[in-house]
Amino acid sequence: MATSDPVYLRVVADIRRQIVDGSLPPGAPIPSRAQLTRKYGVGETAARHALRVLAAEGLIVGRVGSGHYVRDRPVLLPLHRWRFHDHHAPFGADIQSQGARATWEWRSEPAEASPDIAQRLRLDDSAPVTRTHYVFRGDGRPVQLATSYEPAEFSGPPAEESPRGLVARLSALGVKVTEIVEQVYTRVPQPAESDTLALPAGVHVLHVERTHWAGDRPVETSDIVIPGDRFRLVYAHSLHP
Amino acid sequence: MATSDPVYLRVVADIRRQIVDGSLPPGAPIPSRAQLTRKYGVGETAARHALRVLAAEGLIVGRVGSGHYVRDRPVLLPLHRWRFHDHHAPFGADIQSQGARATWEWRSEPAEASPDIAQRLRLDDSAPVTRTHYVFRGDGRPVQLATSYEPAEFSGPPAEESPRGLVARLSALGVKVTEIVEQVYTRVPQPAESDTLALPAGVHVLHVERTHWAGDRPVETSDIVIPGDRFRLVYAHSLHP
DNA sequence: GGCGGCAATTTGGAGCTCCAACTTTGGGGG
DNA sequence: CCCCCAAAGTTGGAGCTCCAAATTGCCGCC
Predict the structure, then answer these.
(1) CA-to-C1' span, A45 to D15 (A)
(2) Strands, DSSP E only, in chain A?
(3) Which CATH superfamily hosts domain B77-232?
């Protein structure tokens, strides 16, 4: 790191090093703004900026009136698991295997396809669809939001035992799901999402756009939003069934 | 939005709205700090902070001496595509289908397994492995970094036509890859990564940890790093081959 | 010994200012 | 007519300050 680097980055680098090498363990307090100015001989602005950057990276959290603390190590919960013949393990199986209690709520309503959804489902704009909102919780804390869209003709309630029993439900309707396509990317959470997921500032989300296909016809599409810092998507592909 | 919200968030929300609804198209200039203070009647600090937040969200870019501009719409390049019987399409096929020229470089070297890699490959610490670094480019711009680790006994050069011909190469050695497990998460880029990927400040990366298994034995593991804002991972799962 | 409230500390919002480095633009000179 | 340079504008780093809201610890009172 060149000495001509901004001073606030010097402070960031030094604290980050202490966090990753473990000399500042999870929960440990970070020196306050006043202490940092003295310790590193920088101004308030640089000290404050350094703390903001570290918070944005998800390494520390600030608590008003108390201080900044090293965040807990991410709890890596596999949320998605694919096997060839049993499609989806139901949500919850993985979370339960990690010792957490999985619960979810859902709410279904008729809606009109937005241009984006219409394109994904190959419908006309404003075509009737069924929209279902899900909130998934692990030990009561929300860990995943999802919104699912189905053409009105296929609509039906989520299965009791698992909201992800879509393939089975469609199969009962004579619709055979042949392919599932997912697009995964990361973005900044919308205010409503930070709210329901209780995201600290600066945390990004993983966004999964999933579409179920029956042949060349899309039969369901959903948007799945997951806090990007504490969860991992797990994909397991069996090559030889 | 409550009126008690921080003023800088009012500015952020207003500009963000204009960007997402299209009244500020990609490339359009954002008012300068001085203009924002006048337009919204806020202080320099708030105006500056608003611009910083929008830049961190990836909606705008700042160019020193020139101004802030609305960023181009993300170019969504599927980088990963799975089909049941042909495993991986070679890197490049997807990128080429979008009109870009795919190139890559790689560099192989013997190394000792770090504790993390040793655990992933079920080897002893410091066991000999072959480490291969890849840089993938689309139209000359780096779009993906990867580091692959193999136990030294399996090591061999990446195939000429595609560095991803791992399954075929191992098969020739009598090792049959039966499963591929991937963990996907998002994090802040390390300085070296921002550098090689030419990432603007505030952009996160997608990190894929991929392990190839032959039965219950891991035969290769790799870390794949992709700019999170302009690329999407695409997974296609065929349910009925 | 226990409890309530006050004072010190801390974060986070907001304001102002100065300056170095870089772009852009326009005007003047060759 | 074209080129180059200087002036004006802009970002980003850095400094200082004030204040509201929240937490924490301590002191004194019951």
Answers:
(1) 7
(2) 29-30, 60-63, 67-70, 77-78, 102-112, 128-138, 141-151, 179-187, 205-214, 217-227, 231-238
(3) Chorismate lyase-like (3.40.1410.10)
Q: What is the mean pLDDT of chain A?
A: 79
- Does residue A76 surpass a pLDDT of 60? no
Give contacts of A235 with chain B, Cβ < 8 Å. Answer: 181-182, 184, 235
**From the candidates B59, B186, B213, which should be mutated to test the interface with A, based on the most A CB atoms within 10 A?**
B186
Tokens of B135: 């840089």
Per residue in B108-140, pLDDT tens?
Answer: 889 999 988 999 999 998 899 999 898 888 777
Q: Which two tokens stand for residue B146?
A: 């990867």
Q: Show me where the domains of chain A are located.
A: 7-70, 77-232
Identity (one letter) of the amino acid at A60? I
Query: Is domain A7-70 annotated with CATH 1.10.10.10?
Result: yes
Across the A:B interface, residue pairs with CB atoms under 8 Å apart total: 121
Lowest mean pLDDT among A37-41, A228-232, B33-37: A228-232
- Chain B hits for A238, Cβ within 8 Å: 178-179
The pLDDT of residue B111 is: 93
